[in-house]
Specification:
Layout lengths: L65 H11 L4 H6 L2 H13 L5 H16 L15
Bound molecules: zinc ion (ZN) (2 copies).
Length: 137
C-alpha cells in the first residue's frame, strides 16, 4: 500500500510513513491502493477505483434510531428503556433499579435522568450507541 500523504510505498503494518512521517492511513493526496495522486476532494481514485477519504459506513439495519431512543428516554427513561435499546446496559439497569427498588419514589430521579438523556439524544449530544455506531435519523 501507499502513503496517502506523499504517495511513497509503505508496509501495510507500518504505523507511520518512513518518508514523510504521516500516520499510516492519514492524508488525502494519494490513493493508498495504487499510489496515484488523487484529485483533491475526490472520493474515488481515478486510476484504480479504490475509495479514498471514505468515512466508515455502517449497515443501516444495525443502526439504532435516534428518534426512537430519544422518545423512549423521555417517556419511559425512568426504566432505562432507551439505554437498554442503545446497549448501555449498566446505566439502564441502574435507572431501572432506582425506580423499582424505591417502589417508584426514585422514578422521579431516574425519570429526570432519562428525560435529559432523551433530549441529549434528540439534540445529537448523544449520537452513538454503546458499540460506537452512529444513530440514524
Ligand atoms: Zn508519506
Ligand atoms: Zn488508486
Amino acid at each position: 500500500m501507499f502513503c496517502k500523504n506523499c504517495g511513497a510505498e509503505i508496509d501495510p503494518q507500518a504505523a507511520v510513513c518512513v518518508k514523510c512521517g504521516f500516520q499510516n492511513g492519514t492524508g488525502s493526496n494519494y490513493c493508498s491502493n495504487c499510489g496515484t495522486q488523487v484529485v483533491p476532494g475526490a472520493n474515488v481514485c481515478m486510476n484504480c477505483g479504490h475509495f479514498v477519504n471514505q468515512a466508515p459506513k455502517y449497515d443501516p439495519s444495525i443502526q439504532k434510531s435516534k428518534l426512537a431512543a430519544g422518545i423512549l428516554g423521555i417517556l419511559v427513561g425512568a426504566f432505562g428503556v432507551h439505554n437498554f435499546y442503545l446497549g448501555f446496559t449498566g446505566k439502564a439497569v441502574a435507572q431501572l433499579l432506582i425506580s423499582v427498588l424505591t417502589c417508584g419514589v426514585g422514578a422521579a430521579v431516574s425519570g429526570v435522568w432519562g428525560l435529559i438523556e432523551g433530549i441529549l439524544i434528540l439534540t445529537g449530544s448523544i449520537d452513538k450507541d454503546a458499540k460506537g455506531i452512529p444513530l440514524k435519523d
